[in-house]
Amino acid sequence: MVNAKLKRALGFRDLILFYVVSGLSLRWIATAAATGPSAIAVWFTALCGFFLPLAACVLDLSSRYPAEGGLYIWTREAFGPFPAFMSAWTYWMSNLPYFPAILFFAASSLLYLGGPMKRLADSPLYFLAFTVVMLALITLMNVVGLNTGKWLNNLGAIGTLIPALILVALGIISFLRFGSATHFTVGAMVPRPRMKNFIFLSTIFFAFGGCEAASFMGEEIREPRRVIPQSLFLAGFILAVGYIAGTLSLLVALPPENISGLSGFLTAIDLLARHISLSALVAPIAALVAISNIGAASAYLSSTARLPFVAGVHRYLPAAFGRVHPRFRTPHVALMSYGAAGIVFGVLGQAGASIRGAYDMLVAMGVITYFIPYLFLFASAIRLQSQPLAPGSFRLPGGKRSIVTLAWIGFLSTACTIVLSLFPAEDDAHPSLTFFKIVIMTLVLLVAGVAIYRSSRRPQQPDISSQ
Prior knowledge:
By secondary structure, the chain is mainly alpha-helical.
């Protein structure tokens, strides 16, 4: 146990909603639908090649070691302290650009409320202020405690599920009135072997990540060995059905050329609602989408901040990161530091052209490093199968053989995804420059992690100070 002073605040319902808000992103539904009917096959490929192996390994590892830090602890048990630190470092850093991106999307969603909000569409100050205020609020609520912060996650999950259900309903209504707007054939549903489609597959793998994050708060979950498997099974079903049914609904209601990709969920909803004379639905859906993205930012900030917390406990970061607030029983220093780092990224994202260029470079670091922690996770699942399970631990049917097989599938899929992430988009004006930028910035981040580890390494006397 890392720290007995942490409070077990998350139960079965909270974990289901956490998995939904961290794993089901409405943005990816539009991204997939914009590519046409072949997106359905891509969803199934990502589901079998990445999500199912990831979920199985998370279930096994979190049952073996239901401790605070999740990924960090699993990698430490399998390979030692240095790989553990690097897995946590890459996960922590690669998620920083996520906060301004997801909150920018939330701010954009609110523009669909109409009225005075429309005038803010071209205001960088609006997007910056929204990002800073939301990150400050998220950080404050999670510092006060998971009993408080979890409500942002729970509301975010509700804000995700309701628009997804409405989308499916609108798709059914549109089909009954007008038939399918997209022509589904066997040929159209089979992805063509083009580099563009392979790169898109890696994007969809990204959409299925996240189910490992709840386990980072292992010592703040009530009965984790029982609750994590139960909640992840149910939430995993919701995620798979949500992505596939949502994509089908959009394609049935609108032709792919009318769906604008990553930022196009609400644009598609707007077109669809006007198409069936239900425009009044757009504003409330927009508000729910904004709430869902705020909840997703809260879920990732609260869970990922546990990585520097545990690294601080083990003295690979300054000991202050490992402190627990005496009243709120939360890792307040790690939370506030991560929230502040997210705000810095938000400022860079809305700054002038030269600073924006620096921000784009920072984002480039996260393209590959996002997937590196999954290599550690799958490798740890394979390595730790030789160790006995504690009484009451979850065991996948088929035991060791099933886990090892799935972990190898996940490992190879992730390795292929990293390779595909090196390829620039087809419309990139400077593909060679983009390639070298991604590689160099990834190396910079990895070297920085090595330098911090080497400079901070000291005798492992966990600091459980509550000051």
